Request: fold
Amino acid sequence: MAASPSASALRRAGNEEFRRGQYGPAAALYTRALALLEAAGEAAAEERSVLLANRAACHLKDGACRLCVADCSGALDLVPFGIKPLLRRAAAYEALERYQLAYVDYKTVLQVDCSIQAAHDGVNRMTKALLEKDGVNWRQKLPPIPSVPISAQTRWSIPSAGAPGANAPPATAPQGEPDQTAAGIERARTLKEEGNELVKKGNHKKAVEKYSESLKLSQECATYTNRALCYLTLKQYKEAVQDCTEALRLDPKNVKALYRRAQALKELKDYKSSIADIKSLLKTEPKNTAALRLLQELNRA
Reply:
């Protein structure tokens, strides 16, 4: 059954807020749309699944990984083997260091559509992480990987009449992100360089605007860490943590992201988490003097 216009309008408004980087307001709009569908007594399983997956993307952007997992699981209960909720749940599991579950979700995505590059990259990262964590027999400790039926492998090529293209994966873009066309990537790179120049001039507020525009076009780890540096300078520590978390989702061992998140967490007086980030960094760069100095400060805090 089709969703009511009110719920559809709320979803569209939520999508617009998401594109503007307003993830909290977007999540609130999706929640209102879900409440309308449930209050109206409509089954609308596919529409509800899309709304849950969209809200999960907001949670993921805000670093609320457990909430993201819960919404993705709800979306998958309604419409099994959806690519977007599977990829988002995998990313959340990865951020939570639940690598076995992340691996299973990434592998499941590839059964649905083997062309999804984000899933191939995720499998490669999880394979490396699990090999380091559990040794050569890591596969023996994996939970079972579900077998995807042929019907689920083919359904994603046919957009839903109620939500055109809602579950169809873009050919090149990670799920939940804008399409990364060649022109878009080039424009994103230009905006990032403009942001870098503004940082050199000490104009961090304007630099944030440039990095934000760049990230709407292409999600690069360096752009997130650069914007995080600006947020640190502007004393917007929660935003700095969010950007570093996003960078670490793309590159789990990124030294700049770990260091800057540790700095932000220290300012937020979350010393335990800050120390954990510095220790993770020192596994990669044991002689990083800035990290060693920050660890000394944290141990005295």
Q: What stands out?
A: Confidence is low (pLDDT under 50) at residues 154-180. The radius of gyration is 20 Å.
